[in-house]
Design brief:
This protein is α/β, with parallel strands linked by helices. The chain has 11 helices and 19 strands.
């Protein structure tokens, strides 16, 4: 090959590489700027919400019994600590049930053990430490030791126990256990299944007989918080004790909320902008001056939460706590003409059963096809029909998991929850009919399985990151559909 031609090819090759590099750099800059703009926009909207004033919240007094359900050790103190103390001071009985011991905090355990891969027993030791911290904090708030119940379920595993591990035991990736290793668990050696956790909550509620229940908000982004909420609501509904006006919803995890983070005792605690007008009536519970000091001392007991978490915990030391009311029930709409064909015209006149905030975080912004906006459900003939609406185009790079839970229990060998995973281009699951539109998925199955039974529905999504790995994107609230 002539030298001149070879040099020309090398020159073109170098130019092509430079162009490719420039394209990659430009794309990275574009994505980075887009994500920064999204984060700043959310923060600005949340800061603007500080100007809003919300209705007050009652203090449970004499004759009332308060039950707080906390997903992890510390949630009960930062979110409901002020109410616990003031309810106790006002003559109410106060109880706390802690679902997990928070033993899956890998960064904190690695920090304490100076090990990149801590051994399972170190996670269990960490769980016991967090139990002691919770007892110390609640003691300062006036909650008696015998009114604190630890269930001992797996940290970051309870959502899966609702959807896919109802009967099959879940194994903690941290402690490596399929049963609780904690001797003080409400049910000793309790198996890690949704069925057992549901049974424990039924027994706790019957034991305590609460008049006022406090649980995580169903739009809390932590999977254990979502699970603690849906398990408790299901148990209350099963026992005929669900009064939405007496179930206070508290929020802990929602993007960069609360704003501003850190110790700002004079700034009110208000809901995130995207949840402010969605489907929840928000209320501000005023914290007494004497309670502010006690709550600060209680929060200070959580010394194990030192890997960047202390600033977050102190964000809840405000002049008020925040609680919401949301009706989790809805009558299942009926329609005779819904066709599963990917077209949504036949859903006209049917209101969504679940609303979900859109473009409300960096994961949702970067994966619009997995960013939920509305969930519809209806009875059409002998079919249960559902429609899932998202913000962007539906592609094969997103997974959609629909969970349908029946409140009428089945045999021990059967699952009360049916979890269906959908992906564009994949065949429909057996017994289900699926059709995809541009921004909607329609799905149906025979309603006979759940005939005359209350069911709880929810949807979660995942998206493939750069075609390599899957990550969680969105999770809807849940809804009880009444037949």
């Amino acid at each position: 090959m002539p030298l001149k031609m070879r040099n020309l090819r090398l020159s073109l090759s170098k130019k092509a590489k430079r162009r490719l590099l420039l394209v990659v750099v430009a794309w990275v800059l574009f994505v980075s700027v887009s994500l920064v703009i999204t984060a700043v926009s959310l923060r600005v909207r949340n800061l603007a919400e500080l100007k809003e004033v919300f209705a007050g919240w009652r203090t449970p007094g004499s004759g009332r019994t308060v039950l707080v359900v906390a997903p992890h050790c510390d949630d009960e103190t930062i979110a409901v600590g002020g109410l616990l103390r003031q309810a106790k001071e006002s003559g109410a009985q106060v109880w706390v049930v802690v679902v997990t011991n928070g033993d899956g905090f890998r960064a904190a355990v690695a920090w304490d053990t100076r090990s990149i891969k801590p051994k399972p027993e170190k996670y269990i030791e960490f769980g016991r430490l967090r139990q002691r911290e919770t007892l110390a904090a609640l003691s300062r708030l006036g909650v008696p030791r015998d009114h604190v119940i630890f269930l001992g379920y797996p940290d970051r595993g309870t959502e899966r126990m609702w959807t896919v591990n109802w009967s099959r035991q879940y194994r903690s990736p941290y402690t490596r256990d399929v049963r609780s290793p904690y001797p003080d668990s409400f049910t000793p050696n309790t198996p890690y299944t949704g069925r057992q956790m549901f049974s424990d909550l039924l027994r706790v509620i019957l034991k305590v007989k609460p008049t006022d229940v406090y649980i995580p908000h169903p739009n809390d982004q932590h999977p254990d918080h979502w699970a603690a909420s849906v398990f408790t609501v299901a148990a209350l509904e099963k026992l005929g004790m669900l009064d939405p006006d007496r179930v206070g919803l508290y929020l802990v995890h929602r993007g960069d909320w609360p704003v501003p983070q850190g110790l700002h005792p004079d700034i009110p605690l208000v809901p995130p902008a995207e949840l402010s007008d969605l489907d929840t009536d928000w209320h501000q519970f005023p914290v007494w001056e004497s309670t502010e000091l006690v709550k600060r001392q209680a929060v200070a007991q959580f010394k194990s939460q030192k890997v960047g978490v202390q600033r977050f915990l102190r964000s809840f030391l405000r002049k008020n706590e925040l609680f919401g009311i949301r009706n989790p029930r809805i009558n299942l709409p009926k329609s005779d003409n819904i066709r599963i064909d990917g077209k949504v015209d036949d859903w006209d006149g049917i209101a969504p059963v679940i609303l979900d905030p859109s473009d409300d975080g960096i994961p949702a912004h970067s994966s619009p096809g997995a960013d939920l906006t509305r969930i519809y459900a209806a009875e059409s003939g002998d079919k249960l029909c559902m429609r899932i609406s998202v913000r962007g185009k539906i592609t094969a790079d997103s997974l959609y998991e629909i969970a349908v839970h029946e409140l009428k229990p089945r045999d021990k060998e059967d699952d009360d929850t049916v979890a269906v995973v959908l992906q564009r281009g994949r065949s429909a699951p057996a017994g289900w009919q699926v059709a995809y539109g541009r921004r909607d998925i329609e799905i149906s199955c025979n309603l006979k399985r759940w005939q005359d039974s209350k069911i709880i529905i929810s949807v979660s999504t995942r998206s493939r990151l750069y075609g390599i790995t899957w990550r969680d994107i969105d999770r809807s609230a849940y809804k009880i559909l009444l037949p």
